[in-house]
Amino acid sequence: MFWPPPISAFRIARPARTSVPITTRSLSISRLPADNGSHFPARRPPEAATMTIDHPAHSRTDSASDDRIDPGRRRFLSGLSLLLGSALGLGSRASTAYDWDEPPPLQKWPQGVVPRGSLQPYWMRQAPDTPRTPFSADLNTTIQRHLDAMRRSGRLASNERTAWLVYDFTSNRYLVTINAGAPYQSASMIKPFIALAFFTKVQEGKLPYTPYQRARMEAMIQRSDNQATNYFIELLNRTSARSGPAEAEHTLKNRHPGIFRHTRIVERIPGGGRSYRNRASALDYHRFLHALWYDRLPYSREIKRLMGLPNRDRVYTGAGGVARQTWVLDKTGTTARLCGDMGILVAQGRDGRRYPYTFIGIIEKARPASNYGAWKNARGDVIREVSNLTYAHLRQMHNLV
Q: Which uninterrupted H or E stretch holds 339?
């Protein structure tokens, strides 16, 4: 914070001077408004102080002259008041930056400065339940402009909507939130949720986890086997009077109400894989992945192992801009109306550290695509391009390989 120079610096050489004591008032500055109960610490106002300011003596000595203020003195005192007000932060604010409970979004990094994940700023906190304004508006804007360009070129149709979310674990910030809170079709991206519901029952002692079930679990997550998925939904059905899908949703929301806020599990996987009614939001996927990364879910390590098995994903495989040293835990989802991927990418920095981030990309079509194979491949490439843009941005943030 800038403070004014000593008051003696403002003295103006004039022939005769008198001293007039001016006492500043004690100023009370309250805490600034903030959401979720956090805020900047309030500035501590200076105690009342007496300062001596020299000014020219009036040539007249009668009492009437005391009521007349010399214009030069008025300008001098006005300028001094503005200077003191600016120093104490009392001036009018040109922006709303102080209304934040965190640093405002950066449009770009300062020239010559590369933020490193090893630097832990004071504002770092746990991930909130709802996304704030993205920490880097530049990435959010870059991706939005890229999507707009693809719509103009026809690579995204007018009857297709998308959702995107990127969260950086190192800075604890959402970098991208586009339609993140809207529920979309889940397709096979619901399968890790089914796995979690099953493992919750195992933890409660209501179901076993045998080598046979381990093999079926790998088939469901790694190879996206629909019959294996229905097998676990049927096991959940045996633990209550509810149907399998209803019991899966009830178990998730009962044990983890803050995570699965927009999740709806209402059907098994139909024949042919046409699952259009199960739904979840990008934010639900992120909250699940965030809790999974920190081992806050039943059998977290096993679920991470399953999601880390080799598969053909849409965030790393075919995404040439993502370094080959990156680890991936993910689950894709595909139908004639949906193409998506949700997962955690663990990038490697040049300092040898690991920098994890969540990436969720969803493209949903209003009507089934006439050419399923071509549509799936084309929309998968759209997700890969956004994954490339995300990695390029994080490379600048954390000096990744």
A: strand 338-348
pLDDT above 90: residue 276: no
Residue 363, both tokens: 């493209």
Alpha helix segments (H runs only) across 277-371: 282-293, 300-307
Name the CA radius of gyration of the chain, rounded.
30
In the chain, the amino acid numbered 272 is G
Cβ contacts of 301 within 8 Å, gap of 6 or more: 295
Q: Reduced to 3 DSSP states, what percent helix, strand and coil does the chain have, rounded to the nearest 5?
A: 40, 15, 45
pTM > 0.70: yes or no: no
CA nearest neighbour of 12 among 64, 77, 92, 67 = 77
pLDDT at residue 270, rounded to an integer: 83
Instruction: Confirm whether 181 is domain-assigned.
Output: yes
Residue 252 located in a structural domain? yes
Residue 158 lies in a domain: yes
What's the CA gap between 258 and 7, in Å, rounded? 57
Segment 278-290, tens digit of pLDDT: 999 999 999 999 9
Map residue 122 onto helix, strand or coil.
Answer: coil
Report the alpha-carbon angle 338-343-345, nearest 5: 135
User: Does residue 334 form part of some domain?
Assistant: yes
For 389, the domain range is 137-398
* Strand, coil or helix: 342: strand
- The DSSP bridge partners found for residue 184 are 280
What average pLDDT score do residues 122-136 get?
47
Asked if 54 and 17 count as a contact pair (C-beta separation under 8 A), the reply is: yes
Name the nearest CA neighbour of 337 among 180, 162, 176. 162
**C-alpha–C-alpha distance, residues 88 and 29, integer Å:** 10
Place of tokens 């105690």: 47
How many structural domains is the chain composed of? 1
Any idea what the CATH number is for the domain that residue 179 is in?
3.40.710.10
Residue 343 contacts residue 197 (beta carbons within 8 Å): no
d(CA 393, CA 29): 38
Phi/psi at 152 (5° precision): -65, -35
